[in-house]
Amino acid sequence: MRLDRLHLWLRGEALGEIEVRRDGRPTLRFTGDATTRYGVGARPLSLSLPLQHGRIEGRSVESFLDGLLPEGAVREQLDDMYGTRTAFELLAYIGAECAGAVQFTRDDSPPGTGSLMPLTDAEVADLVVALPTLDPPGGQPLTASLGGVQAKLLLARTPDGWAWPADGAVSTHIVKPQPYDTTGVQHLVHAEHWAMSVATAVGLSAAVTELAEFAGRPAIVVERFDRRHGIRTHQEDFAQALGLAPSAKYEGALAAEPRLRRVASSAAPLAASAQAFRVRLAEQVTFNAIIGNGDAHSKNYSLTIDENAFYGITPLYDVAPVLHMGPYHHAGHAIDGLVDLRLITRPRLIREAEALGLPARRAAQVVGDVIDRTVMAIDRVPVPNEIDWLPERVRSRLSAFAGE
Length: 404
Hints:
The protein is of the alpha+beta class. 33% of the residues lie in helices and 21% in strands. The chain folds into three domains: 5-105, no CATH class; 115-223, no CATH class; 252-403, no CATH class. α6 packs across α11 and α9 crosses α11.
């Protein structure tokens, strides 16, 4: 029998249903309980999907679902594994554990807690070494999903070691090994861990990372900030918030309405403190630009959404100074009208912070503080031997910002 409906859960509570039209496109209908609890117009699921009576269809629904899934070769592999063609079909198999607090089930029974399958060190190493090929241990089905192009594992860290989250069990960490592709960034995982450590030393909220090696393959291990003590907390990336397909994650320079400003104008009023929201966003934009993150696109910024549908900015994640490691100079988003990191200056960062809604003096203060603290932090953060040359290149870039 053809599957044409999925039940959508948020924090374990029924939020709505996804159905498929005859043309294969998904539609969303929120439950009456959800609209009563939050109110029509509230956005507990996504900035792009306000609660309403009746069905919602179109690009925002499709983009939200696609944004929960891997991209590129990993997505193709999963579609081949399950014989699926659409995000809806694939989420029927791997939608039990997604980014944020979203889950999907085929029936109207609440999602279960799943189970954790203990793994030996050798089994974990085999899983990491095999990536990008996904080969779950012990014949377990794959029931978890996370967006992005880079191959990764979702695992749970327990007092006894690593475990495989089965049947929608909560994962706690993301393991991203160094890609095998020799045309990519060499020592990417080392550079990302170092940059994330610098962000923490600056005083910015950033995902907790560590370096590890699995059977000789280096990897960065990232603690999930959307999981707290085994509980899912909700988030969505900027692409989902703006109703954009993952393939459109990089912004062009000629956008009529710049994305960062759209997020600030739409989400800041829904925050507990609109000013604090704008400050945190301006800090993250500044840090990504000055550190040389050539991959700060719309899937590498995210919003938090709490139980009362208040919005915030997640910790920094996926920050790597790849501008200094190859031809990667796209800022990801337009900053004062520019998307080339090499052309972005301190005055442009200040103007962008003002456009996000900060008063001129506060904008200058926020940008200046991040620059000054980053200059000092670089000298305090240990550098992996593999990239011992990288801090000097970043210092050289920072000197231009500090001197402006």
